Amino acid sequence: MASNSKAVESAPPSLWGRIRHIHPGLVLAALDLIGLGIASYLTKVELTPGQAPMCTVAGIHVGDCERVAASPYTRPIAGIPVAVYGVFLSITLFTLAIAWWRTNNYKLLLLHYGLSLVGVAFEVWFQVAQIFFIGAFCIWCESYGISLVLRFLVALWVYLRTPNPNAVAAEGLTE
Fold first, then answer.
1. What is the pLDDT of residues 9-37, one digit of tens each?
2. What is the distance of C-alpha 8 from the center of its chain?
3. Cα→Cα distances 31→34, 146, 153, Å
4. HEC-encoded secondary structure of 27-90
5. Are 52 and 130 in contact (CB under 8 A)?
6. In degrees rounded to 5, what are phi and psi of residue 172?
7. What are the structural domains of the chain?
8. Structure confidence by residue, pLDDT tens digits, 111-143
9. Quick check: pTM over 0.85?
């Protein structure tokens, strides 16, 4: 007997379908690397005498990075620039994100979430300092703050979508 049925070819997954299946730990790691790059640049500039961050985007001067960098609010503890703390925070968060991706240990996600929450709280304080005490803003500081808030929101989203963290593997979070 000959069969006239043809095998149904499945369509390749859409871009959204491929994005949805990316482990959230990799998204966090990418955001952590972006934050690390920004914090590293700011650290290098802050620790180099006579330099200030460049506030030019596409030839347009945005913000007043020089004024923010010269403020005592950028060195709140023992004269260490806040960017140095950002480097350490980003390295720690990156390590936690990769470890969570590799092991699916929910406690690593919770640590990432908790540390990013601390970072967001500090970012709120620094925003208040820039607006009310310094009277200027730094586009680099704002960019780092946005990356930090995004990291917090991704971790929060995963946390809220995990009904029983001990019973759900990370693969179930991407569906």
1. 666 767 666 666 788 889 999 999 999 99
2. 42
3. 5, 10, 11
4. HHHHHHHHHHHHHHHHHHHHHCCCCCCCCEECCEECECHHHHHHCHHHCCECCECHHHHHHHHH
5. no
6. -70, -15
7. 23-166 (1.20.1440.130)
8. 999 999 999 999 999 999 999 999 998 999 999
9. no
